[in-house]
Structure formats: structure tokens, C-alpha cells
Amino acid sequence: MEFGLSSEQSLLQDSVTRYLSEQLPLDEVRKVASGDVNDAAVWQGLADLGIPGLLVSEANGGLGLGSLDAAVVSEALGYHVTPSPFLSSAVIAPVALQTAGRCEDLLGSVATGELRIGAALAEGIGARADAGLTANGNTLNGKSLFVLDVDADQYLVATSDRKLYLVAADAAGLSRSPLSTIEKTRSTCELNFSNVDATLVSEDPGVFDKTWDAALVAVAADTLGTAQSALDQAVVYAMQREQFNRVIASFQAVKHMCAEMAAELEPCRAMVWYAAHALDEIPEEATMMACHTKAHLSEVGQFVTRTSTEVHGGMGFTDLVGLHYWFKRAGFNRQILGSPELLRERALSVTTLAA
């Protein structure tokens, strides 16, 4: 049995990669990262390709594709450090709403890219001393941190007991403040709730867990693309940069650095693909694979982007090269939706319960 991408999935990956290569040069990434423009134009281009509707069922106006298709796209987005709300609006929101069977009438607009749904899952993942969200019926009070997509039209919000609510961005009593993180290509914000009316999406922690699993695999795939790009950039630079009348790629130390990056990264692709496959086809393994895959890619991504920077020497730290965007993307992905330590603990608890 040969496990790999289908011809349709390869075509999808090629289409997204071609669009990003042509329409998203590094200078455009810089403009978004500096705050000169937002990611609306990039998202509209992806919407023209049907990307926001990947996981939206055909009955709800989307393409009705699977988790492996979403992982393939996420890898391409990470490779180009794409500024977009793909994680929150195209992965988290469709999975949550369709699993819960609530508010599915919104998904037609999500699939076309007209409606952006941000994700505030942090309070369901780990409590923070300076945050916390409480629900009294359908009224929310408190604060949620590291919310994905500052420009969203609505937000999918989780409480500490893993209930999910949908809240309009312009709801009375809700305020949002942009958060400054190392990652400037993906916007995050803080939501403050003061007697905010919300729509209950699900009281079942299982819906939250399935949504979380899908998000973890998407982030892992994004990190895979991020690290692959960093490796490719290191190899290209090493083949061009000369010292002592020789390209540095001929130096044994540089060869070893590039080889070690490749050796660490190559097995990760199959791991991401299998984790995505498990989400749809092997539910008993889905949570364990999602947690281990995101945790492992977090560490490999950090290693590869750091080593790539070292191969570039002093140039690696300059904005001219722009490698820091990939380095910071990997660092942000490492922590968002759960650190490696937290995720491995979750995987252990799931395995123990199954035993």
C-alpha cells in the first residue's frame, strides 16, 4: 500500500502554491506585518480558489473536502508565511458548527469568504491568571486572550468548561483589542465581555475536542510548510554565498547543518498526513495523533528555522532576507492552541482512558 496524496490533492496544492508564489512576494508579507495593509486582499484571492469552503459540506455551500486536503493547503500557506484567517475561519469554525449541527446557515457565507469567524479557544485549553470567561445562560462575561483574527465578523468562543458560543464582533458589551506578538503575519486580539449576548453552539466537550484536534493538525501542517521553506532558503543561500573563494555549501559543517534539518523534517510530512487522515477515518486515534503531531512539529519547526538562520550567518537576522518571518511563525505555532508539554499530557490522558 502506498500512502500519498491523490492527484486531486496534488493539483489543489499546486494551485494554492502557484497563486501564493505569484501574488504574495515577501514585500507583500512585509506590508501586512508592518500594519500598512490587512490580509483582506490575500483572503479574497484564496476565496476565489474556494479555500475558505474546503471543510464546509456541499449541502452548506462548500467543497466538502477532508482534513488531509485542509492540511495540504495549510502546508502551502505556511511555506509562504501567508497572512490569512485560514485556521480560524476555514478550519475551526466549519468543524465546530457542523459537528454541533448549529448555525450552519452561516457556512455558505464562510465558504465564499464573505464572513470571517475568529476563534477564541484559549480559555477551553488552559486557564490564565489574568483572563477567564463565565457564562450565565447565553450571557458572557470576562476576558479571552490570544483570539485568532482581529478583523473577524463573528467569534467562536470557548469557556473553561468547553462550551462553545458564537458572538457577533459588534455585539453590545464586547470590545476587542489587538495583541502584539512576535508573529506579525497572523493577527490576534483580546476580547472583553460585559454582559454580551451569545448564541450557544454546543455544551458537549466532545465538540470542542474534535474542533481542537482539527486545529492542531492544521497548525502542524502550517509549521511543516514554514520549516520546509526555511530549509529551502538555507540551501539556496549556501549554494550562493562564497567564502575563501568557495561556496559555503562545500564546507562540511554547513553540509551537516542542512542534512540534519532535512533528516529531522522529512518524516514529519508523513506524520502530518497520517494525523489528518486519522481525523476523518480513525477517530479512536485522532486526538492522540493530533497532539503528538503538533507537539513534534513544534520542536522540529523551531529547530529548523533556528538552524536555517545560523546557516545564513549575520544575514539571517536582517529584514532584507526576511527569514525572521518564518522563524517567528514557527515560534508562534509552537505555543498557540497548546504547548508541546500540554499536548503530550493530553495525549497521555486520552491513551490512559482508552486502556
Task: Describe the protein in words.
The chain has 355 residues and is α+β, with helices and mostly antiparallel strands. The protein has 3 domains: 7-115, Butyryl-Coa Dehydrogenase, subunit A, domain 1 (Orthogonal Bundle); 118-203, Butyryl-CoA Dehydrogenase, subunit A, domain 2, CATH 2.40.110; 206-354, Butyryl-CoA Dehydrogenase, subunit A, domain 3 (Up-down Bundle), CATH 1.20.140. Helices cover 55% and strands 15% of the residues. It has helices at residues 7-23, 26-33, 40-48, 67-79, 86-100, 107-112, 122-125, 205-240, 252-281, 283-312, 323-335, 340-354; strands spanning 117-120, 132-136, 139-148, 154-158, 164-168, 174-179, 188-197, 199-202, 242-243, 246-247. Helix 10 (283-312) runs antiparallel to helix 11. The radius of gyration is 20 Å and the shape is globular.
